[in-house]
Specification:
Helix content: 25-40%
CATH class of the largest domain: Alpha Beta
Number of domains: 2
CATH superfamily of the largest domain: Glycosidases
CATH topology of the largest domain: TIM Barrel
Structural class: alpha/beta
Number of strands: 18
Order of helices and strands: EEEEEEEHHHEHEHHEEHEHEHEEHEEHEH
Radius of gyration: 23 Å
CATH architecture of the largest domain: Alpha-Beta Barrel
Amino acid sequence: MGLMRFVVQNRDRIPPGGVDQIHICGQDDLPWFARVYFSGDHLVIERNESESGRVFVPWRIGQAGSILIGTSTLMERDEPYLLEVELARGMINCLRSQLATWEMLGLNVPKGLASGVLEGTVEFARAATTQDDPPTAADWAQRCLATTSTTMARLAEEYARQALAMRRKQPRPLASWFGVHLGSNLPDGNIARQLVKTFNMVSIPMTWRTIEAVEGRRNWSQVDAQTEWAQSAGLRICAGPLLELDDRGVPDWTYLWEGEVDSLLAFMLDHVRTVVERYRGKVHLWQVAARMTHGHALGLSEEARLQAAAKAVSTVRQLDPTTPIVVTFDQPWAEYLATEQLDLAPLHFADALVRADLGLSGIGLELNIGYHPGGSLQRGPLAVSRLIDNWSLLELPLLVALTMPSSADDDPQSNGKARVVSSQADDVTLETQREWVERHVPLVLAKSAVQVVLWNQLSDAAPHPYPHGGLFDAANNPKPALEALRKIRQKFLDGGK
């Protein structure tokens, strides 16, 4: 059994419930199944593997909310590590490595940014060399984390600015699909006008549960109305997901067939076939499946879920040979593998579909940030950049769907299991949502593999899965994040429809 121990000087930097989100990853950045707990002064990680790995911990840096940060690669040893120092080592190493990579690709590094790297390096050196005095080492490490976090944000901003400027100089203008997921909303009045000014695409859910809540009785009224509105507004249409294997996407009546794989596959493919036959020629992108990699809906094994996704893609491609097709993966960092033993991580699942050569046109990444369970803890912008780079290795265009909460208060219209991760009231506000948009969306657009950016929730006024994740509040008033998205489109995109 593998065992790692850490001395933690400032345990209050780990938010309430944060110990449950601590995990350790191997060289492929995928979590190992592990048990994490405090024993006296020591944070203990037990696992079956004994290889070296990186430990990820939700940690409060400065006065801001907690973010998930990682150590460098650590080997097992008898002597416990000092957690603050190792987190600082991991962050400064990540910063310096990413800076070196982007410099080789032509990034022009401003002097102020370089001085931030130097300052963080000096602070880490002092932390590393005073470990015989743990409180002093932890203090220097915390200073290093604050400096490095700020410098990482500046580096990501500079990279996005320069990369987007280069792409806009290309003979062919930068043209990305920029959209929002409508959910159950039919936009009208002021909302409709603001959507048309901000986006050139909408995503219309065509999930099995919505359309066939009663076996054999399909209700098309919501989807028809949304489709007609999008067409009249001149917006591109992303249709789907057609299949979602979770409580929000599966009709209740299907549980009578739980575990009967062949029957369930037949029902699923019948839904997919019926939807495509009805709406082909009206949509510009099929989002065929989502949330297929984990969970226990209908008692389907990993193999059965993979089979369902593959057959659904094949069915759509046969019925509609030309419209692009994507399959979307939520929780792409696969944090759930730390507590759930599965064989296929999202990237492995996607790779299997790509290798099957089914006619898949792209891959979707669903980043519901700041939620647990069912979402991903907040991470720094360089972690988002690295994630997109890793998925780009599949050599298919990417759709990136984003959600970020604007409040940690109770949300009566939230109908999912996800809850906002927050340790104090001012961690999550309208302004932190706006700032997150301004920092991360240009970075996502700067990636050449990303062709579609989608805000994953329109409004908090209608039932929705992610608390306070909409661009309009419970009274359907626009949030500052909507204006931030509008400015990003005006600044970076061609705005064509």
